[in-house]
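User: I'm new to structure prediction. If I give you an amino acid sequence, what do you actually give back? Let's try with this one:
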Amino acid sequence: MADYMRLRQICLVAPQLAPVISDMSAIMGLDVCYRDGNVAKYGLENALLPVDTILLEVVAPFEPGPGTAAGRFIEKTGGRGGYMAIFACEDPDARGAKANAIGVRTANVITHAPYHGVQLHPRDCRAAFIEFNHTDGSDDILGPYPPAGPDWQNSIRKDTTLALTEVEMQSPEPLALAAHWGRILGVAADGAIVKLPNSSFRFVKGEAEIMSGLTFKVADKAKVLDAAKARGAAVSGDEFFLCGVTFKLTA
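Assistant: Good question. You get back a string of structure tokens that encode the predicted 3D arrangement of the chain. For your 251 residues, that looks like this:
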């Protein structure tokens, strides 16, 4: 199988799913495709919304406090920053082994056939969790992807939000973090950019190492910004703040 690496999913974390999911859906014109019961064993509930072929997920702990990894993340960061970047590839185990070889530990392995995922330790990844996964028979980008449910493709909407084009990562040393993520992903950084076939990661100067923003191509920026204001989101220029990250809009 040919090597490939593409962004499959971005996971954000919230203290509760409500009203974040309804706000995200109303502002961005996205529909929930699935709520995955498998995350309950981690003390979490979730919802997934497709942005074209990339999934945007929000997880929330059932109970407040540090009883779950997501709860500890909220306490540690004050809820600032994205939680996980999830990548589809040809062989998660081989990709994980290469990461292990450069000192990035495996934190968790998930197998729900035909899906198999390898999650790397966030302390070693820096800024966010990285997961590699593969689903047998899903090399088509619109193919099966069990974490998003049996018919996630039917929930794709293109009337408001067209694509998730860039993920912004902050670090006091952005070039060093870009190079580190590039080594983990097997995609050499071009300065402060790690470019994948379907999205890019841009590394910028910041006080803490976090996933700080998501850039979306939208059909009508003014319409989306008006919807964000109506939902009480903090709007500045062509961006607004929601679920711990800055949503940036491009036409």
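You can read the tokens as a compact description of the fold. Here is one thing that stands out. The longest helix spans residues 174-185.
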